[in-house]
Specification:
Kinase-like_dom_sf, six-stranded antiparallel β-sheet, transferase, three-stranded antiparallel β-sheet, 8 helices, Aminoglycoside 3'-phosphotransferase, Chain: A, domain 2, EC 2.7.1.95, about 270 residues
Length: about 270
């Protein structure tokens, strides 16, 4: 974990924050939590007697995701789904910057007050609520053709980490997986508003209740299996495959195994 202090910007690998934020952030200690797979850097800001804040920043490059996440957080909050509030957003010195509020509680995977059965039920309920939103009101298109095109752009830009592939795909190249993804493109899509990276460390719980979604940069209209695939994979990894069936029972519908595997394949590119 990297730590720094606002009075010494740039310390511990921390980029210097926007000049216009300095007065607001004076006195906050900056900490970079471990974990996460995003290309962006995330910092937790703490100060005695003041609200916890988070800063997210990434280089302003052609495939940057942070501007899209900012727009998605604002839209999602407007739908009544809990998520971090966008407090300020800017581009400065070749970087995108987002200042946001913290959600209460713990990520689902680490919540100390939940047994596995309750975790699985909360997981399913949160996705069921998100998937019930009106797709006609959602301006973000995450359907498979666009995602395959984006995957190809990331391969061409050298942004796909082949060493981070799932165990079953270790030793294969990104180009090889891209060819497989194109060949396995689902013939139809069961469209809903998806989170896009619905892993248990992107759902917050507080007091035994769902407290909101974080890391919403891939939110948009897509096949529900986009979320169910990552949820089922995560459940198997965290709590065991036996909990997948109860999760789907709480969610309220079965899943197509072929589409689950296809969307796990898609996830390798992001």
């Amino acid at each position: 974990m990297q730590a720094g202090n606002y009075g010494n910007p740039g310390a511990g690998g921390m980029p210097e924050p926007p000049a216009g934020w300095r007065e607001r952030l004076e006195g906050y200690a900056w900490t970079r939590p471990s974990g996460g797979c995003s290309d962006a850097a995330v910092f937790r800001l703490d100060a005695p007697g003041r609200p916890v804040l988070y800063v997210k920043t990434e280089p302003a490059e052609p495939l940057a995701e942070l501007p899209g996440e900012i727009a998605r957080l604002r839209w999602l909050a407007g739908q009544g789904i809990p998520c971090p509030a966008v407090l300020q957003a800017t581009e400065e010195a070749g970087r995108h910057w987002l200042l946001m509020s913290a959600l209460p509680g713990h990520v689902l995977e680490e919540a100390p007050d939940l047994d596995t059965g309750r975790r699985v039920a909360l997981y399913a309920g949160a996705l069921r609520t998100l998937h019930a939103l009106d797709i006609a009101a959602c301006p973000f298109d995450q359907r498979i053709d666009g995602q395959i095109a984006l995957a190809a752009a990331r391969v061409a830009a050298g942004l796909v980490d082949e060493e981070d592939f799932d165990e079953v795909r270790q030793g294969r190249s990104a180009a090889d997986l891209l060819a497989e993804l194109r060949a396995r493109r689902p013939a139809r899509e069961d469209l809903v508003v998806t989170h896009g990276d619905a892993c248990p460390d992107n759902l917050m719980t507080d007091g035994g209740r769902f407290a909101g979604f974080i890391d919403c940069g891939r939110l948009g209209v897509a096949d529900r299996h986009q979320d169910l695939a990552l949820a089922c994979r995560s459940i198997a990894d965290c709590w065991g495959e036996a909990w997948i069936a109860p999760f789907l029972a709480h969610y309220g519908r079965p899943a197509d195994p072929d589409r689950l595997d296809c969307y796990c394949l898609l996830d390798e590119f992001f």
